[in-house]
Structures are given as structure tokens and as C-alpha cells.
From TrEMBL:
It comes from the Bacteria. Coiled coil: none annotated. The chain crosses the membrane at residues 32-52, 76-97. Its main location: cytoplasm. Keywords: Cytoplasm, Membrane, Transmembrane, Transmembrane helix. This is Putative gluconeogenesis factor. It holds the Pfam family CofD. Required for morphogenesis under gluconeogenic growth conditions. CDD domains: YvcK_like. The lineage of its organism: Bacteria, Thermotogati, Deinococcota, Deinococci, Deinococcales. PANTHER family: GLUCONEOGENESIS FACTOR-RELATED (PTHR30135:SF3), UNCHARACTERIZED PROTEIN YVCK-RELATED (PTHR30135). NCBIfam families: CofD_related. It comes from Deinococcus aetherius.
Amino acid sequence: MNDSVSTRVGSARRATRRARMWLEPGLGVKRWLLLFVVCTFIGAVGFLHFTWTGPLHFVATRWILWLNALTKPEVLPLYVGGMTVMGLALVGALLSIMMLSRSMLRSTGTAPETALDVIYSHRTRARGPRIVAVGGGTGLSNLLMGLKVHTGNITAVVTVADDGGSSGRLRQALDMIAPGDLTDCYAALSDSPVLARLLLHRFGRGEGLEGHTFGNLLLATLSEEQGGLQGAMRDIHEVLRVRGQVFPATTRPATLVARLSDGREVRGESRLSGQVGPARILDVRLEPPGLPALPDVLGAVRGAELIVLGPGSLFTSIIPALLVPDIARAIRESGAPIVYVASLMSEPGETTGLTLEDHVLAITAHLGRAPDWVLMNSAPIPPDVQGRYAAEGAQVLDLAGASRDLRGRVRSAPLLQTGPTARHDPAALAQALLALISRARAA
């Protein structure tokens, strides 16, 4: 008996919640429902006028006499009977529309039970904040997975200087931009779980296929067919049902060149961690210089409410996207706050020995503007995880020795994802960024 009562209570709560969802502002339903009710009543009045004054007068008279005979004026006034009939007719009309909608939804493969959730999510995300995320690698794709739940107004600006693995082989064979980080971001923002899984599938065998991901091959195919990836962008977004937009920092192949503290230069992103040695990276550049940016990217930056740098590798994911002159200029001139999502750990070879302040100073030097905020993780990293990273030469990035200026820019939140590796939790990171947007709006 208790289980039955609990089931009924749960069903009632779900029904109440769904009814409230229909009444949410901006859903685009209430206005049309109100218009339907108003038009129904106007139509009823018009029909009454037609029948009473036209050739069907005798039908209207018989209807009224029959309805009066069913009611007792001393118990129920005659006009109440008319109102009851109108109400029943309206309920029937609404029921017929609902059943017609269900039939149409089923014919398109959409379950009627989930239609409200789909509409609600779509409308809610369409009103979400306008965010531009800059970077690449696993860090950026994790961020996008968290943000896409809250907003559809996301623009990911992805570095394309990778020259290792599958991306490097495709670059060399087809003279195209590196597709690897683009593939990860498309998978993260795709509204189709099946397509997202397929994009990340890596072939483990097959001559010429081994090591490639399906997503990289798809981008290479579209790029070859359209004479460049820029012409295939619209098709990619439609096919993958992307929530938001994903664009390369530039559509021209580029090589990352690093200048080291011992005077050497290292060419190629894939060589940075292996050839730096005890030296430090002083700065990086792209060759050829003066690479163009897509107009869509510049427009998104100008209209952004928040610009997010990272999380990701400092010199191989974040800064390379900032080396496209037009993008750097648009970010510097933007009125939106810039937040740098600090890495949890340093990276052996690439940022060995660099403090958090060194990371911020490197971004400032290459961008020409300091981040307004630095978002840091406040959750403790387990000792065993720190130990594994320390064995590889990595260290926790914290505020040890930080200047007063940096401490004033830092915003902290528990961002650590539970697991054997030190990674940002997508949901927690998205919530922290949304809180910063709320703070900026209130300022």
C-alpha cells in the first residue's frame, strides 16, 4: 500500500513539474496557447451569430431548447449550462491538438514523452550566456561538455598547430590544418551520443588506417571535397548536430616554433616536450606569420559575455590560438572579462619549473592583455595522484610565491574530477564559470 501511495505521489510530482515547465518564460508555447483559446472563443461567437441570423436559425433554436430542457433553471442557471458546453468544447479541441501533435512526433521518430524536455532544453540553452572558449586538447573538450548543458551560445576557437600522431600524418599527406583537437571539440558538443562515440573511434588495424580516428578522417574527407575545411564547416555542424560552434583558430596550416632559454629553437608542437631538456620555453610563434582568422570567430569574440582561456597545455594548446593576430586583437579589444582556467599540474618538458604566475605572465606577454580572473581548483589533489605526477616531473600549480596582483585575480572553486588522474570536472568547471558570468552581470 505504501509503495502504491509513493508511486502516485511521484507521478503527481512529475506531472506538476512538467506543467511548470510548460509555463517557463521564453518557451514559446504559452503565447500560442493563449491565441488558440482567444480564437476559439471568437470563432464560437461568430458561429453563434451565423446560425442565429442565417439559414440555420431553426437549428440554433432547437439546440437552445434542447439544452434548456436538460437543465433546471432553479438549480443551474441557463447561462451556466452554455458556459459548461463551451468549456467542454475547448477541452476537446485542446485534446485533439495534443493527440495530433503526438502522432506527428511519433512519425518523425521523437517520443512524445521527451518532446517537452527537448523543447525546454533547447529554449533554455538558446538563452544561455555567450561564451568563447580558446584552447585545445582534452582540457577544452572537457570544458565544452560541461558548458553545453547550460548554453548553446558556445564558440570554441581551437588551435590547429598539432603535428604529431594522426593529425600530423594527415597534415603531411594533405597539406591541411591539424584536425585532432577539432574532432575532440565536435565530439564534446555533438548532440548525438552515437556520432560523438564514432568521431573518437581510433582504428587499431588496417594499412593506412591504423592510428587514425574516424573524426579526423571525416574532417580530412570534407576538407578535400570542399577544397578546404572552411567550406565544409556548415555541413559539419549540421551533420554532427553541434550545440554551439567549433572553429579553427586559422584555416591555414601552421608550424609552432618555440624559442628556448639556451638560445635554441624547436620547430613543431610534438617536439616541445621531448627536446626542451633543462631549458625553458621563453616564447612561441607561428609560421608563417600573419595567419588569417575566420570572420565568424572574430564576431563571436566581439559579442562574447565571457572569454575562457583553457584549461589546457600552456604553450601547445592555449597560446597558439592567441598567436593569430586578428584573434589576439579582438580579445584585447573585447569588453568581456577574460578568465584563464589554471592547469592543475605543470607539464613535464613544456612547463617544468614554471609557477602559476609564470603561466599568467606568459599568456599576458603573448596576448598583450592580462586575464581579468584566474580560476583555480581549491579541492586537494590526493597524495597518490600527486606522487604519480611528481615521478614524471610534474608539480601542483598553486599560489606559492604569487604576487599581490595575481592573488587579487584568483577565483577558487572545487574543480577536481574524482579519479586516478588530475583533471577538471566538466560540470563543476561549468558551474564556476557561470558564477563568474553572474558576478560580471551584477557588477
